[in-house]
Amino acid sequence: MSDIGLKQILEGALFASREPMSIYQMKKLFGDQKAPTEGMLREVLASLAEEYQGRAVSLIEVAGGFRFQVIDVLTPYLANLTDEKPSRYSRATLETLAMIAYRQPVTRGEIEAVRGVAVNTQIVRTLEERGWITVVGHKEVPGRPALLATTTQFLNDFGLKSLEELPNAEDLIVTPAEDLLDQMDNQSE
Amino acid sequence: MSDIGLKQILEGALFASREPMSIYQMKKLFGDQKAPTEGMLREVLASLAEEYQGRAVSLIEVAGGFRFQVIDVLTPYLANLTDEKPSRYSRATLETLAMIAYRQPVTRGEIEAVRGVAVNTQIVRTLEERGWITVVGHKEVPGRPALLATTTQFLNDFGLKSLEELPNAEDLIVTPAEDLLDQMDNQSE
Amino acid sequence: MITHVQGELPIALIEGSPLTQLPEDLYIPPDALEVILDAFEGPLDLLLYLIRRQNLDIIQINVAEITRQYMSYIALLEAMRFELAAEYLVMAAMLAEIKSRALMPSPVGSEEDEEDDPRAELIRRLLEYETVKMSAEALDELPRVDRDFHIAEAQKPDIYKRTAPPTVDLSELVLAFGELLARARLSSAHQIEWEPLSTRQRMSDVLMKLKDRSELTLSDLFIAGEGRAGVVVSFLAILELVREGLCALIQAKQGSQIYIRRATQDV
Question: Is residue A186 a contact partner of residue C246, using CB atoms and an 8 Å limit?
């Protein structure tokens, strides 16, 4: 920690974090090293907040902890960026969501096993930010992977009362492997 | 724009966006109002970058535009926050990516010819889903194979402004072709 | 003299431990075959390694022996990585050609055409591959987002956030899952049985409740009004959670209250 100051560490972590940061998480930044006390942290946070006075972002405390937030007066400018029509989710995103909806609670590794491709962190983040999926726990295997499940908001947004109302996807498979094999057999006869 | 300065608007917009912001997007911030010229914008960006000297974040230009990023020295602290290890890529994946980055646009067949082994479909999919490569066309030869190239996001994620900034791989090889041939000649005598 | 590449060529790591016994020529003992196939990116990679590190003399290779052995791999490999073994075989064929040319006296007075020289072609390929290999290593060393540096971001004001995110139609989701299943079937030999959805939903619900409270009683999970079907679903969900090691059931003594807890490593 010698040449990097506590203030700089907190400042960087607050900007890197997408969620408000709690005092507990701030202490975690120091790993095995001796973490600063809550008093020290709050003192540094206060002085950091002061340094950002008059800038375009301000350091505020919310329920979940501390975060940097773009000041409200800039809203009209930022709104000019967003008039474009909504984009579409990639196939990878849809498949990940489908896996979570139908196979929950499920880990990323399990999704990867079925999809045969690594699941990008960004996809999981996108779905989390959308409020459709959430971490409901951790699987007690090495690495303690997060268990993902869909939320009530997911049901609401898709007009479902419960997951049981999800259509049975197995019926939709157009050409399952067996059919393909059957076809081949027929042709070879 | 009266009491909010141009610098503050850019600063806020840069912090509000996860993706790098292009000059074009910066002009869009001003909606129907008269947008500043590129020259003005670059001037303000330069002075903003200077103000953040010595802070925990710095203003960087990459292929897609400008973004704030947390300074490298803080990465070990941030790593303490999560149990998740950042994704590692296999040699096969990296070699495929390298072929596409250095030889683009390139077909899968061309990659296979150089690597001497088949290119796994999953590798191409993983790179596509990561947003690093894309199909830019088809080669007009039998089978019309897809031509693969890297994306702007690839450059952004590797902190590059353009492909020219890629490390020069030819310099990394010590033994030139002629020497190898000489060796063989000597051995066969 | 062989010029060594500066620095260390990466030594293959097999399941975390370095591979110490490396082949001395292109012959790979059958029991090490799988290891070699995993450690090297293909015949070019292996050959490059042998030339750079082991001072392999291409001309001195006992090509007949290697070819015979390569042929026997093919039987061994039928179920495994046939296409990869084939690539090694092509390499052996190329070496055989080089060797046979080296052994034959060249006709007096006829200068051999460079373009026809299989050695020149092999070396061109080896160097081209080596360039790619080095580029891949250089690429991996570049600072990369989320690994070496992080994007700085601040919370946007509310109005800004409320821009329409993409919408998804339920049918798109179902279709995506259908395609996934079809693909998974094509690639997997056996079909895994999954719990019915109602059970999986209840499993998520239980885990969600355990996020707020360290333990639950069984009665917390049986909701009056759901009737017997509800009890059965809850019961199945708990059993499945326990089976998958996601929860633990705890009872102090016989007949006393049963608690459900999140599984921990030490339970």
Answer: no
Most B CBs within 10 A among A21, A47, A72, A74, hence the mutation to make, goes to A74
A6-75 against A91-172: fold identical: yes
**Which runs of E-coded beta strand occur in B57-177?**
57-62, 65-70, 133-138, 146-150
- Predicted pLDDT of residue B99: 94
Subunits with at least 3 CB pairs below 8 A relative to chain A? Answer: B, C
pLDDT in tens, A104-161: 899 998 998 888 888 888 889 889 988 999 999 888 888 788 999 999 989 988 888 8
Looking at CA atoms only, how far is residue C181 from chain B in angstroms?
17
Cis peptide before C23 (omega within 30 of 0): no
CA distance C139 to chain B (A): 7
Query: What's the confidence (pLDDT) of residue B36?
Result: 94
Does the structure show a pLDDT above 80 at A86?
no
Quote the pLDDT of residue B95: 94
Domain ranges of chain B: 6-75, 91-172
Contact at CB, B173 and C144, closer than 8 angstroms: no
Strand partners, A57: A70
A149: its two tokens = 């499940």
Distance between CA atoms of residues C262 and C239, nearest Å: 13
Which residue of B106, B115, B123, B129 is the best one to mutate when testing the C interface, meaning the one whose CB has the most C CBs within 10 A?
B115
B113 inside 8 A of chain A by CB: no
Chain B residue with the nearest C-alpha to that of C39: B91
| CATH number of the structural domain B6-75 | 1.10.10.10
* 3-class secondary-structure state, position C149: strand
Query: Above 80 in pLDDT, residue A175?
Result: no
Over residues C88-111, the pLDDT tens digits come to: 777 777 777 777 777 776 665 555
DSSP C59: G
Which residue do the tokens 């907190």 mark?
A: A10
Burial class (CB in 10 A: 0-12, 13-18, 19+), A40: exposed
Q: Which residues of A fall within a CB distance of 8 Å from B77?
A: 4, 9, 12-13, 29-31
The beta-carbon neighbor of B70 closest among A15, A123, A144 is A15
CA distance C148 to C155: 23
Measured between CA atoms, the residue of chain A closest to residue B48 is: A55
| The residue count for chain C | 267
Structure ipTM over 0.85, yes or no: no
Which pTM value belongs to this model?
Answer: 0.72
For the segment B101-127, what is each residue's pLDDT rounded down to a tens digit? 999 999 999 999 999 888 888 899 999
Residues of C in contact with B160 (CB under 8 A): 142
Q: Do B169 and C132 touch (CB under 8 A)?
A: yes
**CATH ID of A91-172, from 2.60.40.740, 3.90.76.10, 1.10.1040.10, 1.10.10.10:** 1.10.10.10
3 state SS of B62: strand
Of C150, C155, C178, Cβ closest to residue A67: C155
